[in-house]
Specification:
By secondary structure, this protein is an alpha/beta fold. It has helices spanning 9-14, 21-32, 65-82, 92-99, 105-108, 127-131, 136-160; strands spanning 2-4, 42-44, 51-54, 57-60, 87-90, 113-114, 120-124.
Length: 161
Amino acid sequence: MMVGEQPGDQEDREGRPFVGPAGRILDLALEEVGLNRRSIYVTNAVKHFKHEQRGKRRIHKHPNREEVKQCRWWLDQELELVKPKLVVALGAVAASALSGRTVVLMRQRGRLLHWAGGCRGLATIHPSAVLRMPDEASRHSALAGLVSDFREARRLLNEAC
């Protein structure tokens, strides 16, 4: 199972997670490590697209702690239904939602964690972070880090089976 922050503009319009530019990065990284997205339940910690209207564009705004808390019951239901062997948090908001406390991603990233409720997991960057890098070299490095974290997730998943 993978948990992102919240739907983006395209995800909100289509009603499915990770179908926009960040979804393409997610698919690319998963393909690189031989994971099939169809075998992974993908969701978001916050279920609504928090945004600010600027003309015709809807600009993403980070959800606050209360919004994450309000959506937690829904995430708990998904965890109960899916019963994942491993839960990958895509970004600090998702990691904090899963752990029930603030997570410093750069300290926790890429290693085995135990989320609130006992699920095993791993935290990594959100795929949109790759898109926000200032130059091609930084984007390449960020994508390589995401792929490396997914390799570790795959190793942890195989270890659990």
